[in-house]
Design brief:
With 302 residues, the chain is of the alpha/beta class. It has a single domain (5-297), classed as Arginase, Chain A. The protein has 10 helices and 8 strands. An 8-stranded parallel β-sheet has the order 2-1-3-8-7-4-5-6, with helices on both faces. β7 (227-231), α9 and β8 form a beta-alpha-beta unit. α5 crosses α6 and α9 (249-265) runs parallel beside α10 (282-297).
């Protein structure tokens, strides 16, 4: 049985020449997964665009309207890091839709993947750090609104703290937020997740995996969840330009097995999103994400 995956790279976000965001990684990842047979063509799906009703479960109506209408201020656009365009809005809605649909698929298959997503710096009323809408918060609330999950745990292993996720869900006891990240890295003002582990610059595999194992065990125990969303950032990688940690490719594979194995042992379906990655060579980013998707496919039912 092949794992289902949802992709949005056909909705191209136009960026100025020299922009530091590695937009090409999404297409390259999809192509490599197809070429190697990790994902079958019939299991690759274009997701729906998240509706206003879905987005409003995590975002303010005024913010959603201003994003849609191109009415964000210059400062708000600068904070997001992308120039506004209708294509940006469409892509952002599709990315949230992809995590919602990965959740639906994971309920049936045990695990499914959004080949983008992990936009955890989006707050209820603003975006930031290349994030417009918070797909994990939107998807978790959608599962609950549709009676498909009672309690959700968000396991965020991007190198940057999931500040928007923590803020949106701060007063929600039904969604548990866990973030393991570089303590000195962006965002420089940290929000309070239900469980945070801040790591020093230069942390290597052994210390990282020990902290992660302890954190995931505690998060799953405290969350008492029946569904998990896993943000598998590529940016803890030792070759990442923005990461500040020193996790090897093998260490990241061990991370993915640890998180997905713990969820499997707890009986939790898992939707996986890619989150960040900023290695100098885009091929390295793609390889980390490819490794995550390949490992996740091994946890698919069937």
């Amino acid at each position: 049985m092949f794992m289902r995956a949802f992709y949005t790279d056909i909705f191209v976000l136009p960026l100025p020449e020299g922009h530091r965001f590695p937009m090409a990684k999404y297409r390259l990842l999809r192509e490599r997964l197809l070429e190697t047979g990790v994902i079958a063509p019939e299991c690759l799906n274009v997701p729906h665009a998240a509706t206003d009703a879905e987005l409003l479960r995590a975002h303010d109506a005024d913010y959603v309207r201003r994003v849609q209408d191109g009415a964000l201020t210059h400062q708000e656009i600068r904070r997001i890091g992308f120039p506004w365009s209708a294509a940006m809005v469409e892509r952002s809605r599709r990315s949230s839709g992809a995590t919602i649909e990965a959740c639906y698929a994971a309920l049936q298959d045990g695990v499914a993947v959004n080949l983008a997503g992990g936009t955890h710096h989006a707050f209820r009323d603003r975006g930031g750090g290349y994030c417009v809408f918070n797909d994990a918060a939107v998807a978790a609330r959608t599962l609950q609104a549709e009676g498909l999950a009672r309690r959700v745990v968000i396991l965020d292993c991007d190198v940057h703290q999931g500040d928007g996720t923590a803020a949106i869900l701060r007063d929600d006891p039904t969604i548990f937020t866990f973030s393991i990240h570089g303590e000195t890295n962006y965002p420089f003002h940290k929000e309070q997740s239900d469980l945070d582990i801040g790591l020093p610059d230069g942390t290597t595999d052994a210390a990282y995996l020990a902290a992660l194992a302890q954190g995931v065990h505690e998060a799953l125990r405290r969350a008492d969840a029946d569904f998990a969303i896993y943000l598998a950032g590529a940016d803890p990688f030792e070759g990442d330009q923005l990461g500040k940690l020193k996790i090897s490719m093998a260490g990241l594979a061990a991370r993915d097995h640890l998180v997905l194995g713990a969820c499997r042992a707890a009986g939790l379906p898992v939707a996986v999103a890619m989150a960040g990655g900023y290695a100098k060579q885009v091929e390295d980013i793609v390889t980390v994400h490819y490794q995550t998707v390949s490992i996740a496919a091994g946890y698919c039912n069937g």
